[in-house]
TrEMBL record:
Name of the featured protein: Unannotated protein
InterPro entries found in the cross-reference section: ChsH2_C (IPR002878), ChsH2_Znr (IPR022002), NA-bd_OB-fold (IPR012340), Thioester_dehydratase-like (IPR052513)
Native species: freshwater metagenome
ChsH2 C-terminal OB-fold domain: residues covered: 60-122
SUPFAM superfamilies attached to this UniProt entry: Nucleic acid-binding proteins
Highest classification ranks of the organism: unclassified sequences, metagenomes, ecological metagenomes
A Pfam cross-reference name: OB_ChsH2_C
Domain ChsH2 rubredoxin-like zinc ribbon: 20-55
Gene3D superfamilies: 6.10.30.10
Length: 136
């Protein structure tokens, strides 16, 4: 019997399914509002700026910069004991959207706000792909 706690996994909704499908294919899609051109992320049913429901997914290249970060040197929850130190980061895409992710393939002391990072597609055994980042 294993005493490891399973990691939480994404559960797509009808609204977010295109995002997860794209990640599985190693593409990043972000919603854009047809009414006001605002970029919207995470996936949702209404524009966060004008409340229009005319949102469409568009492919973006995913290049980003580190907006802010913290280093968790103790597991933030039991499923993550194997991931410390964990670099919890908010990145900003060129389109202006920001989201939380993890940085990988870098030492915590080498991370800087404003550093350029590129996507890493972390494919899970369950068919879900998580979007992480590494230095560009
Ligand atoms: Zn809008």
């Amino acid at each position: 019997m294993s005493d490891t706690v399973p990691k939480p996994r994404p559960r797509p909704t009808p609204t977010s399914q295109p995002y997860w499908d794209a990640l599985r294919d190693e593409r990043i899609v972000v919603q854009r509002c047809r009414a006001c051109d605002h970029w919207v992320h995470y996936p949702r049913s209404r524009c966060s700026k004008c409340l229009s429901d005319q949102l469409v997914f568009q492919v973006v290249d995913g290049a980003a910069t580190v907006y802010t970060f913290t280093v968790a040197r103790q597991a933030t929850a039991p499923p993550f004991v194997d991931e410390v130190p964990q670099i919890i980061t908010i990145v900003e895409l060129a389109e202006g959207v920001r989201f939380t992710t993890n940085l990988v393939d870098v030492a915590p002391e080498d991370v800087r706000v404003g550093m350029r990072v590129q996507p890493v597609f972390d494919h899970g055994d369950d068919g879900m792909t998580l979007l992480r980042y590494r230095p560009a």
